[in-house]
Amino acid sequence: MKMNQFAIYENNFETKVAELKSLKFLPKKWEELSECELFFYFLSKCFPEVKSISAVKRKIKALRANETQDVLEYLEESNTLSTENFYHIALQLLGFLEEVDYKVNEISQAFEKINLPRIEKTGDLSKEELIEAWYLLLITHNKTGLMLIDFLASKGYFKDFDHEIALFFNGKAMSVFETTSLIREVVYVETDVDTDEDGLADLVKVEIVRPRAKGKIPALFTASPYNQGINPEANDKKLHDVNVSIERKIPNELRYEEIQYVAEEKTLPKKREISSYTSEADETFTREANYSLNDFFLSRGFAAVYATGIGGMESEGIMTCASVKQTHSMQAVVEWLAGNRVAFTNREDRVAIRADWCNGHIAMTGKSYLGTLATAVATTGVKGLDLIISEAAISNWYQYYRDNGLVIAPGGFQGEDCDVLAELTFSRMIQAGDYLHSKAQFDRKQAEMKELQDRKFGNYNTFWDERNYLPNVKNIQCDVVIVHGLNDWNVKPRHAWQLWCALKENSSVKSRIILHQGEHIYINNNRSLDFSDMMNALFSEKLYGVKNQANEQLPNVIWQENTQAEVWHTFSDWTSEKETRVYPNQTILGETSSNEEKSFHDGISEEKKKKFVRSRNSFSREIIKENTQDLAESRLYLQTKELNEELLLSGTPVVKLRVKSSKNIGLISVRLVDVGRAKRLQETPSVLSGKIDRGYGFREEILKEIQQGAETNEKMITIGHMNLQNRKNAWKNDELVADEYVELAIEMQPTIYRLPKGRRLALVIYATDIDYTLQGNEEVSYTVDFARTSLSLPIIKNKSVTGD
């Protein structure tokens, strides 16, 4: 078990004393107490669930001070407090178990092993040192990944405080606000779009959950097309047939300017006349489709706001899947929260309501489509938006459903496309009466989307350019936190990499990135990383104005180590220092090129294909094996000798190929593989014992951790695909003649990956990818000329195990 805390901020002693007093953890005349008396006072505050001093003493007596004494005996019999005994007691307060997590005579070693912070001191503690040590302990993570002060809050420490005023400690908002009497209200924000074409601006339903506060509070807005429900049956019926071959494309000299999306001149739809104003909502609800990170902040004085946007149940409009109009509908919610737009209490009475409870500072949160819309709204430069968490988010929808001229499925969702996702999220369908009036228009829009998205040829076009946020990153005015899994094969790592690179060109914002080893997951319930604390520090600074230097002190890049569980490193940037080129031949990746040629055949038996289709990811597991019977003829497998030194890859590996197809169509897929028997991290987090509390008497979150699994022989590092007719770019069609060589460069998904000494690196070259590409299963032969083929590896040189 290892803890990694980055959101700890060093204050001077006077500030620490003042903050401890504000939390009622330090008596006014603390100088008059002895060290043991002061420590007893601290300990007495750790059991808010009991009232009497007798009960408190019983709780303290249950703690062990050293090999022979419990804590009560030790404090009654001693005149001094040793550092070793303090930290032995601290381990117990943090929930660690003797003989399970530590040994009583190895306290310092336990702190080092678990990676817990402590003051640098040996011998006895002075009162001032005790205060320093106690302050640090309160912000130290316990065994379930909560700061000790947050754990005490979940037991009721703040129950007698003022529940309507925000309180901060070490630059982070404390869990003070009541969650038993949250305000739940619904408003309908008027947008600037008319997607249902009724002549009126579309209204979108917004659900607000907020604590009762004496002053104005900030808002955490989650834009979720799933929020009001989904249509899984309709989605499944809409899935596209993938048992089709790639199409021959007519060569052209198309330029980007010819397919570039140009925003329509805005003709604003008619707005509703306001009949009156009110400060009271007309509608409430019992339970929102919540995001647990937002739950964490409700008790800390932040509102949680949810909206599905156009096409959502009880909203107006049509679900358009990632269009500019969808972005504008979510932008409108931010504008209302910031006081710059109208909302109504319902869709009929034209009674306007203001967000007069909001201080005008907003952050956007959420994963996948939710984080994607946060990125999209940020690129509008909307006022009031101070920070977004772009978590597992799409930055360019073409690279979600297409890649280099190919139709590509997001991992696990073969046959899905923009129109399918629109079908899934058009929750107006759930209400039969509403759907009665919107179905015909929605069906028309779906037919139009199906045509424009172009599954036949898979090229980048105006439809996809509209859904590419990267050209507009220059407009972002808020700070950005990118969170992404390096094993996320749904929203692949390229989305985070390209957003990160684009943000470097925008000097007006601060960006940082957290890269974990998981798949398409949230990490706010991860035990080994203080993600929620880091977001707390940033939200407190950006939305409440707390001067905690979070934006300057938090690392630019945090990367989860791939060779050990629960280890996180920091870097100044996600980039490579150099590139190393290796040359493949029939069996190895060598340092010199070979003049040999080698062929493989696409197309497998229908029986084998059905087996791979039935079992998700079985193709991905089989294609990277060193020895495979089912796919041996369908690939080239090349590998290095055992590495004589460690390699740390950082950036985008590039495969340059000279290849020919036996037909005038073709595609190439490549995978880079870590080879060698070893225990590797699992991509799916394991559920741990214990839960994370999200407030006093409020919801709980399941605790998870990415852990080491059983030994495996290999693991895919990264992947890439390309249509042989899109060698230069995704919108221009190149000529392809059967049995004539062409040259191409495939940029694989970017990564940071450590290859230990003694491992081997393999490159797998093949064509049809059952898990991602169309499954035409044609008999096509491919030949690779190794004389003009190479692999460029992005390398960080001379990096220590701990990074920067």
From TrEMBL:
GO terms for molecular function: aminopeptidase activity; dipeptidyl-peptidase activity; serine-type peptidase activity. The keyword Protease applies. One of its GO terms (biological process) is proteolysis. It catalyses: Hydrolyzes Xaa-Pro-|- bonds to release unblocked, N-terminal dipeptides from substrates including Ala-Pro-|-p-nitroanilide and (sequentially) Tyr-Pro-|-Phe-Pro-|-Gly-Pro-|-Ile. The active site is at 368 (charge relay system), 488 (charge relay system), 520 (charge relay system). Its EC number is 3.4.14.11. Its main location: cytoplasm. Keywords: Aminopeptidase, Cytoplasm, Hydrolase, Protease, Serine protease. It is found in: Cytoplasm. Removes N-terminal dipeptides sequentially from polypeptides having unsubstituted N-termini provided that the penultimate residue is proline. This is Xaa-Pro dipeptidyl-peptidase. It comes from Pilibacter termitis. The lineage of its organism: Bacteria, Bacillati, Bacillota, Bacilli, Lactobacillales. The gene is pepX.
